[in-house]
Design a protein that fits this description.
two-stranded antiparallel ribbon, mainly alpha, globular, 159 residues
Amino acid sequence: MNGQSQIPIYFRDGTMNHMKRFLISTVINGLGIWLVSAIIPGIGLKPYGGNELWQLAVTLLVIGAVFGLINAVIAPVIKVIAFPLYILTFGLISFVINGSLLLLVAWISQQLSPNTFTIDGFTSTGLTITSLGWAILASIVMSVCSFIARGLFKALRIL
């Protein structure tokens, strides 16, 4: 041995920790999407390909991954650009931004398959106030769900 660890470099630099966090976040986001579609009347979820349980699970994981990617890539840019609005509104603009990002997730999921993740009032022709309202309510519920789930995962030392 030459003093070097036998663990490959891509495992030593924390890549596996990032992947583990992304996968757990995807599951948490998927559960949040499921909860939102179950309790908010303006949000609809139709699984890809059918109504089997595994198809619902795959649909939730795909939409959860899309939501995670949007929150990782697009959300920080928007939040930096909207920083003056955060100051002017004492942070309340975050509800509108998070709701808008959820509308973006709904639009992307509809591009993958029509009527998969829908928000009432949000159609291909445009956006209505009711759809933004449902999206803001859904983003609040998802934030609470995510907060509780992350706390639970940290308490169980999974995250």
